[in-house]
Amino acid sequence: MSGLSLVFASGGSGGHIFPAVAVAEAVRARNPRVMPVFAGSDRPIERAIAARHGYERFVLPAASLNTLWRTPRVFVRTQWDAYRQARAFLQQRQPAAVIGCGSFSGAPLVYAASRLGIPVILLEQNVIPGRATSWLSRRADAVCVSFVESCRKLPRKARTPVTGNPIRREIARLTERAVHRTGERPTLLILGGSQGARAVNNVVCSVGAKLRWLLEDWQVIHQTGWNDAPRICAAWRSLRIDAEVAPFFDDTASLYARADLVISRAGATTLAEVACAGLPSILVPYPHAARNHQVANALVFRNAGAATIVEQNQNRREFATDLMESLGGLLQDRDARFEMGESARSLARPNAAEEVVDVLFELTGLPAAPVTSRPVRAAG
User: Which PANTHER family does its entry note (predicted)?
Assistant: First the structure.
């Protein structure tokens, strides 16, 4: 398999894994002989996504940065074990390249690849680069960034092509349709990220009770995360609001196609998908995100007129009041939703995965068949 494997250091959340899936799809479309391997932890989200797409997995020990502060010896031992296992795996597989997807749990694999002379490409989804990207950028052959603002936050010598955030093919194709105008049965899509967001779940339901008179004409689709689905389903049912609730939705493309308005965290991958779908959004940045990167992501969309921002305050009452004002206004203003959707579409980069693959094939010299079709690039 020498030279025909491509290893993704994709551990972490869906925001790290889905860009890897998008690049893997684009690589296979360009050269079906290249075999993607997803290396990461054994979290349920990683198992589920890899299984759905049929990709080989390689499980490595993983330790979060929180472990470093609580039990530094455990952290160091776990990272060292991950590095040794990753190095042995890479020596055996000899992949054409390793693609780091921004998670700290993937850092030992990326570091091992750089020490072995294997080409390394990093994907940075956020405006503010994460710690793993910042540390590893000096060892990478290229850092593919989603926002031009990110280039100034990385070392000057780093190669930083602005490719956009890779999006799965079925979501990228949403740019080919017109921005949706609300029909008779509008849909509110609530996304807490692939791991859910309990604070958002709770406040949305309490706000829903106060805006029931508006929401009774809407369909609600609510992705809750793995622990909250039964409770949130019961809450919507008690309000007699038509709601489709699940811990996690596999087919998000169809959800975006149905949606008229989104409430979401401000993870970069979700925002890239919302842009391709041309959807207005109410963004609730995760307040404990590293380097406050979700606020920076959200500001790009707000400044473009594509979103409103509601901060998750320590005071839950203030949080609920702010969300109720934003949601109540947009539920009633179809023209505002349409204008915000068009602004979101102007931020879309539907060809990001193909642009990353261009960089990959240039670095590795992998043979490729010509690309016969790509998603239509969004205007703007």
Answer: GLYCOSYLTRANSFERASE, UDP-N-ACETYLGLUCOSAMINE--N-ACETYLMURAMYL-(PENTAPEPTIDE) PYROPHOSPHORYL-UNDECAPRENOL N-ACETYLGLUCOSAMINE TRANSFERASE 1
| Six-digit token string for 153 | 């936050």
Instruction: For residue 164, say whether it is annotated as part of any ligand binding site.
Output: no
The count of other CB atoms within 10 Å of the CB of residue 151 is 16
Q: Note the pLDDT tens digit of each residue in 333-372.
A: 999 999 999 999 999 999 999 999 999 999 999 887 655 5
Q: Given 3.30.300.30, 3.90.190.20, 3.40.50.2300, 3.40.50.2000, which CATH number is that of 172-345?
A: 3.40.50.2000
**Helices 14-30 & 268-277, crossing angle to 10 degrees?**
60
Q: What is the pLDDT of residue 195?
A: 57
Task: Flag whether pLDDT at 184 surpasses 80.
Answer: no
Please tell me whether 15 is known to bind a ligand. yes
- What residue spans in the chain does CATH classification 3.40.50.2000 cover? 5-167+350-364, 172-345
> What tokens were used for 282?
């109410």
Q: Which CATH class is domain 5-167+350-364?
A: alpha beta
Q: What pLDDT digit, counting tens, does each position of 79-90 carry?
A: 999 999 999 999
**Is 194 labelled as part of a ligand binding site?**
yes
Read off the pTM. 0.90
85 assigned to a ligand binding site: no
206 is in an annotated binding site: no
User: Does 155 or 66 have the greater pLDDT score?
Assistant: 155
Is residue 168 annotated as involved in ligand binding? yes
* Structure-token pair, residue 203: 């406040």
Q: What burial class does residue 335 get, using C-beta atoms within 10 Å of its C-beta: 0-12 exposed, 13-18 middle, 19+ buried? A: exposed
| Amino acid residing at 225 | G
Are residues 37 and 8 in contact, defined by beta-carbon separation less than 8 angstroms?
A: yes
Query: Which pLDDT tens digit goes with each residue over 201-218?
Result: 999 999 999 999 999 999
